[in-house]
Each structure stands twice: as C-alpha cells, then as structure tokens.
C-alpha cells in the first residue's frame, strides 16, 4: 500500500497517491491562511508605532507571564495563530477543549491562554504590559487589553487538561506544566513588540509565518510539504521528506523545527539546527528544502498538537503536513497513530485546507537496501530492518560510536557525538 493522503475532512487518496477530487484540490496559488483571506500577524511592524507602544508599556501595570504565555504571544505576533487577535477567555477555552471550536465557531484545537497565578497587580485595570520570563531583565514582550479575568474551577481545569492531553497524569510533561500555571485567565487582544529570544538566539532559523510565505513566493513554490521536528533528522526522516515531496508533487519541503522549551533530555535547538543543516546541504538537491524554526514551547499534546501543527503550517503557506508515528507524543501516553486518526475523527470537512501526509513507521530495509515505510513491505520481519531505540542511539553517541549509516548520516552523527560527549 502506498503512503496515504487524506484531506482534513477524511477524504482518502487513491493508491497511486492521487488525491480524490474535492474543491480547490489543485491550487494555482499559495494556500490561504486559516480563518481569513490574508495573514494578520499581531506584531507591531511599524517602527514608530512600536516605539510609542513601548513607551506606553513602561507606564502600564505589568506582570511577568509564564513561558507558555510568552510563547503564545510570539506565535500570535508571528502570524502562526491567525486569525486569533489575542488570548482566549474561559468560555472559548472550554469550547475548544470540548468541540475544537471557539464559541463563535472558529476551528481551533488547543486553547491559547494567558494563565496567571496572582492577579492582584492587575485587578481592575484595562491595559497591561506583559513581561518576558525568558529574557534577562524581563522586558515587555506585548501589551494586552484586559477584557476580563476568568477563573477555572478545579473540575473545569481537570476536564480541560484531559481533553487537551488525553490524560491527567502529572508525569506527562505537558500536564505538569499546564497545571502549574494557575487558574486565572487574563483575556483580550494583544499587540506584540518582539519575538522574545528567538530572533537573537536563532537569527538564521527563526521565521514568522509571513516571512516563510514571502520566501516561498521568491522561490516560486506554490505547493510545500511541512516537516515538524523537535529532534535531529536521521535517515528515516530524510527519506520520509523525499517520499512526501515526490508523492504530493510539491515544489519544496519546509523543515520547521521547534525552538522553544522542551522536556529535560531533549537535544537543544542549536545542535538540532546544525545537524539538520548539514544533512540538507549534503543529501538534498539545491532549492528543495527550507530550514526554519518557530518560537513555541512543546506541549507534548499528541493528537491535539498535531492538529495545531496543521493550523499554523497552513498559516505559513504549506499545502501538506507530514504526520508520522507518535507525532508530538511523549512516553506511552498516545497510540502510535492517534495523531493521524484525529484528523479523520475530529476535524470537520470545513475546518482546514491543508492536507495530511499520513506516514507509517519508516526504517532502512536490509532486504531492499533502502528506507521504506513498514506497511509497504508486508513480507518483512522486524529483523529485516535497521532499528535502534532512542536510548541505544544516545548511548552510542555518548561513547563516541556512530550509529550505522543506514540509520544516521555520518555527518549528522559527528555533530551529535560532539554534543553528547561535551555534556
């Protein structure tokens, strides 16, 4: 069986990879943003207006927000969370949790919140400055109009956690983070003044949704496949991108890496960036891959986060998103393909225009001498593949031993060995 394609509505593709007919399947122009005809980032791009807002911010009551709220502000400012205009209220959050829609009907998979613990400094005020917890000196990252402050009950919070993460287990890193933030949500529109530490720390990689769209246009790309990653890319990831590009007839691939906070033990963004750039330089044809990143903290929300990935890849101009095994998962909290089935079961026909490239577990076949999707080779047994656990790979790299070339490109392994041996 060939790699499957399905529209968010659940329309399946024919075995040859040709999408079943539906309106706008073959686009002459770049895909529209989610929920609007044009992208509406909340970053104040005009220098004079931004400076004036910064001066105002110094006179406003302020709070230092959580890293999660700061990351939400970055995503709002960068246009990834189009068409949202700010932080959600409790009613919208609960509606999103239950129905994947806001109270006014906008499809959205994960609440976008400014959750605070102590509301005393901002009680009764109409406008506040939001300070960044991730930058020295806690500079102002955004100004928010306070339309109101809601409080979650314990039952509401627990229900929302279960809906977003499919678990309430405190061992889940996303659950632990979310439940540590507090119970009050400060809601209302925001104006974003900067992109936190992402522009400074990752000047060659961090991009807004609008700047990605601009570069697609400069390259002459109309159909683009997005590859989400929070890890280095090994042979299986490399070949998966090539499979998806070939099967969809896309003009290029967007390797779009998360640059924000991860759980302990995950590889830092700068190391991932270097390893991915080396792999692309050596093993992909010119002008087929864009390497970029976005400023967000990992939720580890599995299926719900996969849908969020689809939303903001559509906003970045991508026509397809690769969703593979255990996409956005952690530990054993999700089934291996839960992040694919949610698109068939919970994403309505009218929700998204982006297409999902549903990938199986991908590995190097000793029989065929190439990387394949396991579902495409039913005659294979486990012994016919080159398979290594993450623990085994980390152990090898830490000991200065490169994984087999069938698993990891030697140039990538060299960068990762240097990182693990320097720890």
Describe what you observe in this structure.
This protein is an alpha/beta fold and 423 residues long. Helix content is 33%, strand content 17%. It has helices at 47-57, 67-77, 90-99, 154-165, 173-179, 198-201, 209-219, 235-248, 269-283, 303-315, 338-345, 390-398, 410-422, and strands at residues 4-7, 62-64, 86-87, 115-116, 127-131, 140-145, 148-151, 184-192, 224-229, 252-258, 289-294, 320-323, 355-358, 362-365, 370-373, 385-386. Strands 2, 3, 4, 5, 6, 7 and 8 form a seven-stranded mixed sheet that branches. Strand 5 (127-131) and strand 6 (140-145) form a beta hairpin. Helix 3 (90-99) crosses helix 4 (154-165), helix 9 runs antiparallel to helix 13 (410-422) and helix 12 (390-398) crosses helix 13.
Write the layout of secondary structure elements.
Layout: E1 4-7, H1 47-57, E2 62-64, H2 67-77, E3 86-87, H3 90-99, E4 115-116, E5 127-131, E6 140-145, E7 148-151, H4 154-165, H5 173-179, E8 184-192, H6 198-201, H7 209-219, E9 224-229, H8 235-248, E10 252-258, H9 269-283, E11 289-294, H10 303-315, E12 320-323, H11 338-345, E13 355-358, E14 362-365, E15 370-373, E16 385-386, H12 390-398, H13 410-422
Helix pairs in contact: 3-4, 9-13, 10-11, 12-13
